[in-house]
Amino acid sequence: MELDSYCPGGVVSSHAARGQHPIGVEGPLRRSIAQQLLTVVVGIVGGTLGHVSGLPAGPLLGAIVAVGALNLLADDRAAVPVWLAVGARMLIGAVIGSLVTRELMGELGRTVAWALLFAVIVIVVGLGAGVMIHRVTGLELRSAMIGSCPGGMPEMAALAQEVGAEVDVVLGMHLARKLIALSVIVVALVVAT
Amino acid sequence: MSEPVSIALTLLTALAGGTLAHVFRLPGGAILWALLPVAALRLLIDGFVPLPSGHRVAAQILIGIAIGSTLTRNPVLALRPLVVPVGLSLVVLLGIALMSGIIFAAVTDLPLLTTLFSTAPGGASDMAAAALQLGADVPLIAGFHLVRQVLIFVVLTTVFARLFRPSPDGEIGG
Fold this sequence. Notes:
The complex is a heterodimer. By secondary structure, chain A is mostly helical.
């Protein structure tokens, strides 16, 4: 359910934000293998440094910072092949699935109603924030609400494109939410430990 | 079953499930459809072991590369005039999520770390990846995030698509 899920045969690239294509796809021929290799190498180096640093979620944060910096400093040059982005989700799914136990499934069954309730609360607050942003800034309602809805970034980007919302703004709002949520948790854990 | 065989079967199963999800664009995507059959194997067949820690680190790095590649100039620049209201709304959202996590831990016997990751408004893959080495119940966290994302996928995207659908004369609702 991520951005790359909508890019069969293409390349997940930084051009998602340029309005050239709302979900970040370019044909394989448009992105050089060298750029993809550079992105992967930079990400691996950053992730390894993050791992060695001992920070909470160090490999994840290290790779995000390294590849994000490459993108922002080098004119959006990062490019990730779709197979790698999808493969990453398959691998994380495999890792998580391999940690499942009968006890955990029982726990999930016992608590899923609470999880649903809190999911609805977070969704409603997100949508309310969208209405507030619309009223305060004059940003069109569809962009504000789709940007504030705490769903998967690819679905929201695809939806924004479908209904003619401002895709850059929607992507920016989702990026901010994901990165800030992750940063807050990591900082809180560092402080707590 | 030996550990190498268990690892190979786990990865092949995830590859098959994830590929089907990608090709057919199934709700939940590659992460859910890799997770479900692997979990089923683990629950139904004795001898399957958790993937070693090296796989967890690799998964975090690969997810990080995918997220980092989406961090680009235009979305960042597009947010500049909206920084204050969007920032405030995120503070409110994070505050509500934090309180939800605390209440979630209080009304269930789940650890606070697990519930905080579960209600945080991040993505399923990044929250699960971040929790991997922190002693939280990662399958539960991923499960709760997927509940939210599937709920939004099934309900809200349909509502939004109807509510904001372009009219035949080119005008867009909402």
